[in-house]
Amino acid sequence: MKIKRKISLKELWNKVDLSKPHSWGIIGSNLAVIFFAIVDKLSATDVMWIYWIQSVIIGIFNFLRILMLKNFTTEGMKINGKVTLPTKTTKVTTAIFFLFHYGFFHLVYAVFLGTFPIILAEGKNFSGGFYLLVTAVVFLFNYGMEFYKEQTTVTDESPNLGAVMFIPYFRIIPMHLTIILGGFLAAAGSFFRTDTSLFVIILLMSIKTIVDLITHSVDIYSGLPAVQRVE
Question: How far apart are CA 109 and CA 114, in angstroms?
Fold first, then answer.
């Protein structure tokens, strides 16, 4: 199965409503990460690993979410060039594809994160183990409660299968761009003899804030704007 999407970022951003409290909650929580990174001297690698484990947790729950869908639509979704029907086979096939495809991305990123301390000249010791454990447990609990509430809430609406599968991929964007741009920042820091770890954290959290605002504004019942197909 091959994924092909055409998404208008302008249309996605237009769905973001900065007048809502939850939008400012997202902005505030991401600013808090930068604040604690400065106060507790967390490295960019520490923050990246925290973000990585949260993305993995989201991926696992999304795999379960797809499998547990009862009523759903497949509008705008094709598999191998054929129109997709909202059947159990389609649901299971999509879930398995998502698990391996999303999982492969994170396996690759884990390898890159293993070399990040060297790239940023942070040393080989991982200093954020305590934060990783605490944030992972808290995030797992909160996301698990949200998932449980979602599964036990009765609704007549049918989510779009393509949107449910695709939304977690937005979390790949901050990680991908930070790894690429982080290398350039590290090179510049080495040239000017400047510690670039904080700049990398700010870069990650800035991109993450934009992505968080968009993903919290996407309606899984109507699907993503300008989505072409899955084939």
Answer: 9
